[in-house]
Specification:
The protein is an all-alpha fold. It has a single domain (12-296), classed as CHAD domain (Alpha solenoid), CATH 1.40.20.10. Helices cover 76% and strands 0% of the residues.
């Protein structure tokens, strides 16, 4: 989904509906691809759609309380989690084992081949889970309930008249408040970026993701050139935080792939992958302060 569905004339209510409709429709375009594993983008884009929709529930929390969206949020969380192992193993095969610095360059060739075979086996199991989730009557019921809920703005049914009235306000002022609050939280977390421990960098990454989804939702409300420049610099920070996070989750991913295997060649290869990833994490951490300075010097489009 390349264009923000939110327009300047939208109310808060209309914007929320537009975001959910656009991302649900986008999900539908990828569902068959995910089911048949036509490309690895199928599961990825399906999960992205659900992440965006769940993020919308969070972005609009001040206007639409948790209890009004809880049921749909829980169902979206369930379905996205069923796709998680498929996405994790897709990424490990494509971006991990397929990394030009890894492929054919680390440890014994036999260990690399065995690791790939183990990961592909896990990937096949994960896609059985994907297809089961898509075929599950629970998902069919969600699709029916969700479309009806969005079309009728069903969240209004669980809100007081006073709260409903807030939904009729124009979206721009609401968007400015949300994005300002989220960006200020990120700036505060980044004051000591060069010395933050990994768990705090992980939290910063989560906060950056929240702002990123807000930017995607509301970008059409602000100057396009300013938004493009800010987004480009913000993405540069996110890329490095992503690399750091990939390394942090690598031990758990390797443990999942290896299972109870005690093959010495596979373990040697896995150790080599882990070592390289730690080196890449160090490079990412060294880049962050400069990228953070660049971001701080960039005009904030919604200010």
């Amino acid at each position: 989904m390349s264009q923000s569905p939110v327009l300047a004339e939208h109310s808060v209510d209309d914007a929320f509906q537009a975001i959910l409709k656009a991302n649900y429709a986008y999900m539908e375009t990828w569902l068959d691809n995910a089911y048949h594993r036509e490309t690895i983008r199928g599961v990825h884009q399906t999960r992205v759609s659900f992440r965006r929709m769940r993020s919308a529930l969070s972005v609009f929390r001040k206007a639409i309380p948790r209890e009004a969206v809880q049921k749909m949020g829980d169902e979206m969380k369930w379905f996205a989690s069923e796709l998680g192992p498929a996405r994790d193993s897709d990424v490990f095969i494509d971006e991990g084992l397929g990394d030009k610095n890894i492929k054919g360059k680390i440890g014994p060739a036999a260990g690399e081949a065995k690791m790939l075979a183990l990961t592909e086996a896990k990937n096949a199991e994960a896609y059985i889970k994907v297809r089961a989730a898509i075929d599950d009557p629970r998902f069919a019921q969600f699709r029916k309930d969700f479309t009806e809920w969005v079309d009728s703005k069903g969240w209004r049914n669980d809100m007081s008249p006073k709260m409903v009235k807030r939904l009729d306000k124009n979206i721009t002022g609401f968007a400015v408040k949300v994005m300002t609050k989220r960006f200020n939280k990120i700036l505060a977390a980044g004051d000591d970026l060069g010395v933050l421990p990994d768990y705090e960098l992980h939290e910063l990454r989560i906060q950056c993701k929240k702002l990123r989804y807000s930017i995607e939702f509301f970008s059409g409300l602000f100057d396009a050139d300013e938004m493009a420049e800010f987004t480009a610099r913000f993405k540069a920070v996110q890329r490095q935080l992503g690399i750091i996070n990939d390394v942090a989750v690598m031990p758990g991913l390797l443990e999942w792939v290896l299972g109870d295997s005690d093959d010495a060649e596979v373990k040697e290869f896995a150790d080599g992958v882990a070592k390289l990833r730690w080196e890449q994490q160090g490079v990412a951490k060294s880049k962050l302060p400069g990228l953070w300075t660049d971001l701080g010097a960039t005009k904030i489009p919604w200010a």
